[in-house]
Amino acid sequence: MDTINRLLKKQPPKRGRRAAQELTEPGQEEETEPEKPNPLFVRYKQNENGTTMAIPEEWLQAPVGSIFNGTLVQPSKKPFGRRMVEEVA
Q1: How far apart are CA 55 and CA 66, in angstroms?
Q2: DSSP conformation letters of 34-74
Q3: How many CB atoms lie within 10 A of CB 4?
Q4: Is a pLDDT exceeding 60 seen at residue 29?
Q5: Rounded to two decimals, what is the model's pTM?
Q6: CB 56 within 8 A of CB 42
Q7: Could you give the CA distance from residue 15 to residue 21 in angstroms, rounded to a whole number?
Q8: 36 HSE (CA, 13 A, CB side)
Q9: Which three-class secondary structure state does DSSP give residue 30?
Q10: Is residue 59 within 8 Å of 38, Cβ to Cβ?
Q11: Which residues make beta-bridge pairs with 12?
């Protein structure tokens, strides 16, 4: 019965790396760089304010980066045409 009660109790939260470091070394504060996201993925966001796309730095230095370099096209005043699918050249 004791074992069942122990298993049913709410588990304490797990501590992250930063919290574990603070517990082991309270006097030392190190400024660590934030973890970089995986360079295989692109972050795409579309909302009422517009569309944004975050490209990893590694892509900009590679040959594929030439697609993302250059001037940006200003958004049109009418975001959608009369067709559901609009072909863009």
Answers
A1: 12
A2: PPPPPTT--EEEEETTEEEEE--HHHHHSTTHHHH-SPPPP
A3: 7
A4: no
A5: 0.40
A6: yes
A7: 10
A8: 8
A9: coil
A10: no
A11: none
Q: Which residue has the tokens 């072909």?
A: 87
- On the question of pLDDT at 72 being above 60, the answer is yes
What is the helix (H) or strand (E) element at residue 22, kind and residue range? Answer: helix 17-24
Question: Residues with Cβ < 8 Å from 41, sequence gap 6 or more?
Answer: 56
Q: Is the pLDDT of residue 5 over 80?
A: yes
The per-residue pLDDT for range 46-71, each reduced to its tens digit, is 888 888 888 888 888 888 888 887 77
CA distance 32 to 28: 12
pLDDT higher at 32 or 62: 62
